[in-house]
Amino acid sequence: MSDRPIDLTQPTLVPWEQVEPLFAEVWRSGRLTVGPHTQRFEQIAAELMGVTHVVAVSSCTSGLMLVVRALELTGEVILPSFTWTSTGHAVVWNGLTPVFADVMPGPYTLDPADVEQRITDQTSAIFATNTFGLYPDMDALQAVADRAGLPLLCDSAQAIGATYKGRIGGGLCRAEIFSLSPTKVVTAVEGGLVATDDAELARRVRNMRDYGKTSTGDDIESFGLSARISEFHSIVGAENLKRIDELIQARSALVEQYRQALSDLSGLSWQQIPEGWRSSHNYVVSFLDPERHDRDAIWRAMAEAKVQTKRYFYPPLHRQATYAVYPAPQPPLPVTERASQTALALPLYSHMSSDDVAEVCHRLRGLLQ
């Protein structure tokens, strides 16, 4: 066995030779942002997701912010606390109040029943999230949203290539927003995608990613951002997106290796994936029984063993300092609290070798036995 460091994530990129001539073409053209390569990327993504509109933006976070603004939401937005901070930040940046809901034990995705009991006359939207690559029960959440007359949105940052009951993500609700950062299954180095079948919403987001300029550029018709994506990022994103199934299949095999190699250890469990769902396996996350294992001690020990792991999501949003100004969730969030205190993400990336997975398992096993 080796003692070399093992990273939590690494970006999986196509060979340099595949993008170099396309980069050179852009360099010579002088058209550096939102040009033909971005349009091509949007078209490839829309065809993959089976939606009529995809708008490429500078990041998933900017996409979240623009969608919330474009829908002119007011008051409160319900979202999980067990998520990355961008979901909450997009709500707060738009002057809205986040209302945190609990997740379901096992899949750790947004709990539709818990969402429903938190709806008030101030609620303007429900923001679901994709957890580690797994969609929540979108049908149940849509039913809750329909009964209340609310739009259902999804922060699908980790979801590219994931499926829900046989349907690939992208058109599972009013709008889905995807991340293309270096930690994602498909990376564009940086960037994001807004997918929707709502033509007016797509038009507004497309307008708002460039400050809110009119089509002629002579005036500003909405409060937008500088959220354009460069042609270079679009090239990388498009080339990587073409092999999405290959990337997910590689991750699925590695996740299965983790589960099999550690299956005999007591006090360790995994995210449950319902039958008919396909996770993108953006992360592989174990959960350590607090009566048997001290998650934080294991996290520190793995760092000493030169394996990068992550307490994820920790702390949950309602425990973060920036959200302390909002009232504590009532009723409380017991599943979120336990998940955030026991979750430990292990190294995973699409080009990771099975030998590296075996090495991670060896070092973790030595701490858990």
Largest sheet: 7 strands, mixed
- Cα(first) to Cα(last) distance is 18 Å
Q: What is the number of independent domains?
A: 2
Class of secondary structure makeup: alpha/beta
CATH topology of the largest domain: Aspartate Aminotransferase, domain 2
CATH architecture of the largest domain: 3-Layer(aba) Sandwich
What does this structure look like?
It contains twelve helices and twelve strands. The protein is of the alpha/beta class and about 375 residues long. The protein folds into two domains: about 15-240, 3-Layer(aba) Sandwich (Aspartate Aminotransferase, domain 2); about 245-369, Aspartate Aminotransferase, domain 1 (Alpha-Beta Complex), CATH 3.90.1150.10. The chain has a seven-stranded mixed β-sheet, sandwiched between helices. Strands 10-11-12 form a three-stranded antiparallel β-sheet. The model has no long low-confidence stretch (mean pLDDT about 95).
Can you lay out the helices and strands and say which pair or pack?
Blueprint: H1 16-29, H2 36-49, E1 53-57, H3 60-70, E2 76-80, H4 85-93, E3 97-101, H5 112-117, E4 123-129, H6 138-148, E5 152-155, E6 163-164, E7 167-168, E8 175-179, E9 192-196, H7 199-208, H8 231-241, H9 244-261, E10 268-270, E11 284-288, H10 295-304, H11 334-342, E12 343-346, H12 354-368
Parallel strand pairs: 2-3, 2-4, 4-5, 5-8
Antiparallel strand pairs: 1-9, 6-7, 8-9, 10-11, 11-12
Helix pairs in contact: 1-8, 2-8, 3-4, 3-7, 9-12
